[in-house]
Amino acid sequence: MKKNKLELILEVGAAGGSLSVWSSTNKEGNRSFLVKRDESPLKALMEEKDAKGIKFKSTTGQLQSFADALIVLGQYPWHRLYPMFVHHDFIDPVLAAVMTLGGQKELDRWKQRIKYE
Question: How far is CA 91 from CA 22, 50, 66, 96, 98, in A?
Answer without folding.
Answer: 14, 39, 12, 9, 10
